[in-house]
């Protein structure tokens, strides 16, 4: 009997909570699943599961063995994944979730390059600022920007972006250029409503941290909307470098108070820790890290 198949079947029963669920997940018959678990218990000489007509429960031995099974199976998958990642066999669907502005402006131009280099991999890219549940909604990978909360997910930093204080030259000419953070309070502000600090903008200056209470004339949950209004000379914005870099380089927007810097955020690839990193996902993460690492706006 294949010991790994026995362990895989036992782990599937525990994860699914039933023999029927495990049979569906493994594409086996319920009888085969029951036999593998029974044979495993006989070989080990212990009962791993308490079976009732309504539910399954792990014994103390079963709980300990389940943890070891998951670890061993994960290591096996990881070993196979590492080998496959260096071969041309990477294939299949990768379901990805990305933020709206970053996804459209920075990631959309990259997908075709990845597909050209990996013709057997199919991408399913969802663009949304909603905080999706990767495991529950079946995503293989998400790109997230900010300070990541602690979770059961694993992540890899791809790049970083800093928040930039800027406005159009015409606006600054008409209303004056702020020299100190307190000056911002008197200006028209185009605010991103999902900013963690709200209407309290926090900056790091020559003498340390300082904050200013702003009074927005526009609030929106979309950075592109803030940028569009700023380009029409309607006020001051605090937006990420990946969004305004081209405007700063062209002169359409101007950064002011360069001695006062706002926060820098990491850009991360996030994926479920309960799953091994398949070749197709690993290739995509490596591709994004390499491509974004070359970006002019990255951490500037």
What is the secondary structure topology, with strand pairs?
Layout: H1 3-16, H2 19-26, H3 30-44, E1 49-51, E2 56-58, H4 60-85, E3 92-98, H5 100-117, E4 121-127, H6 134-137, E5 141-146, E6 153-167, H7 169-175, E7 189-192, E8 200-205, E9 208-213, E10 216-220, H8 223-231, E11 237-240, H9 241-250, E12 254-255, E13 264-272, H10 279-293
Parallel strand pairs: 3-4, 3-5, 7-10
Antiparallel strand pairs: 1-2, 5-13, 6-11, 6-12, 6-13, 8-9
Helix pairs in contact: 1-2, 1-3, 1-4, 2-3, 4-10
Question: What is the first-to-last residue Cα distance?
Answer: 58 Å
Average residue-wise pLDDT: 88
Strand runs, count: 13
Taken as a percent bin, the fraction of beta residues is 25-35%
The low-pLDDT segments are none
Written description of the protein model:
This protein folds into three domains: 3-85, Orthogonal Bundle (Arc Repressor Mutant, subunit A); 92-158 and 265-293, D-Maltodextrin-Binding Protein, domain 2, CATH 3.40.190; 161-263, D-Maltodextrin-Binding Protein, domain 2 (3-Layer(aba) Sandwich), CATH 3.40.190. The chain starts with a helix and ends in a 7-residue tail after the last helix. It has ten helices and 13 strands. By secondary structure, the chain is α/β, with parallel strands linked by helices. Strands 3, 4, 5, 6, 11, 12 and 13 form a seven-stranded mixed sheet that branches. Strands 1-2 form a two-stranded antiparallel ribbon. The chain has a two-stranded parallel sheet with strand order 7-10.
């Amino acid at each position: 009997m294949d010991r790994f198949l026995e362990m895989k079947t036992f782990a599937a029963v525990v994860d699914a909570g039933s023999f029927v669920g495990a049979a569906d997940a493994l594409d086996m018959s319920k009888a085969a699943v029951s036999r593998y678990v029974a044979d495993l218990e006989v070989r080990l000489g212990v009962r791993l599961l308490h079976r009732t007509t309504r539910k399954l429960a792990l014994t103390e031995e079963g709980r300990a063995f389940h943890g070891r099974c998951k670890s061993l199976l994960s290591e096996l998958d990881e070993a196979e994944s590492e080998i496959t990642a260096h071969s041309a066999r990477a294939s299949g669907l990768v379901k990805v979730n990305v933020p709206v502005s970053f996804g459209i402006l920075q990631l959309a131009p990259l997908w075709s390059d990845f597909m050209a280099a990996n013709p057997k991999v199919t991408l399913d890219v969802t663009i949304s600022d909603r905080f999706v549940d990767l495991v529950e909604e079946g995503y293989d990978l998400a790109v997230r920007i900010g300070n990541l909360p602690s979770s059961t997910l694993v992540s890899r930093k791809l790049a970083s972006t800093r928040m930039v204080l800027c406005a159009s030259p015409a606006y600054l000419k008409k209303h004056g250029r702020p020299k100190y953070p307190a000056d911002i309070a008197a200006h028209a502000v185009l605010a991103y409503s999902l900013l963690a600090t709200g209407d309290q903008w926090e900056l790091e200056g020559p003498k340390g941290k300082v904050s200013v209470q702003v009074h927005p004339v526009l609030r929106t949950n979309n950075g592109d909307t803030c940028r569009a209004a700023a380009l029409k000379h309607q006020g001051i914005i605090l937006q990420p470098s990946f969004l305004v870099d081209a405007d700063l380089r062209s002169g359409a927007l101007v950064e002011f108070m360069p001695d006062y810097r706002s926060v820098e955020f990491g850009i991360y690839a996030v994926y479920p820790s309960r799953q091994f990193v398949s070749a197709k996902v690993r290739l995509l993460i490596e591709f994004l890290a390499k491509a974004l690492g070359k970006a002019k706006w990255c951490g500037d």
